[in-house]
Write a structure and sequence with these properties.
Blueprint (H helix, E strand, L loop, with lengths): L2 H24 L10 H24 L10 E4 L1 H8 L5 E5 L11 E6 L4 E14 L5 H6 L5 H12 L6 E12 L2
Parallel strand pairs: 1-3
Antiparallel strand pairs: 2-5, 3-4, 4-5
Helix pairs in contact: 1-2
Length: 176
């Protein structure tokens, strides 16, 4: 069994046991609960479990947007610019890149592997690299369009005639 699935099942089982213990404590209030101990334990435990589970999901940032539907990889410098809200745009090559649609959440990963946050995709468009302006480059965290093109040329071997995907993102927060 997958380690992540096993961890999820163990944690969920533990939460369900806590829920049962909480509901069993309410048994002492018999005058309020005349439906019977077994029914109270099962139904109340299930409802309490679902409430705790929903709260856990909400606190982890997975609600209301849901779980991430993809990932984007960044250099350490790019990732820091996103976390510090210096950059709002992400420019990636269009060919060979699959990006989830607007309104989805993606995992933001450093090139070295660890996840550093979640990003909400607010807008997406395609453009020729040569059509990107200095304003686009500044929103992506670069000083000028020339610097953006040079960085892309060294990292992805971009040419001015290449098509790029420009994503406007909003950081949802850093992960542990």
């Amino acid at each position: 069994m997958d380690a992540r699935l096993r961890t999820f099942l163990v944690r969920s089982g533990f939460l369900f046991l806590i829920s049962l213990v909480l509901v069993a404590g309410f048994w002492y209030h018999r005058e309020f609960y005349q439906i019977g101990f077994t029914n109270l334990l099962i139904i109340g435990g299930l409802v309490t479990f679902l409430v705790i589970w929903a709260a856990r999901l909400a606190l982890s940032g997975e609600l209301p947007r849901g779980r991430p539907r993809g990932e984007l990889t960044f250099s350490v410098e790019e990732g820091d610019r996103l976390l510090k809200a210096v950059a709002r745009l992400v420019v990636r090559p269009s060919e060979g890149t699959t990006v989830p649609g607007v309104g989805n959440v993606v995992r933001a990963l450093y090139e070295t592997g660890p996840e550093f946050g979640r990003l909400f995709i607010e807008d997406a468009r395609r453009a020729f690299l040569s059509d990107l302006t200095d304003a686009d480059a500044r929103q992506a965290g670069y000083r000028s369009a020339v610097e953006l093109r040079e960085t892309g040329a060294t990292r992805w071997r971009w040419r001015p005639s290449d098509t790029v995907t420009v994503l406007r993102v909003r950081p949802l927060g850093a992960t542990r």
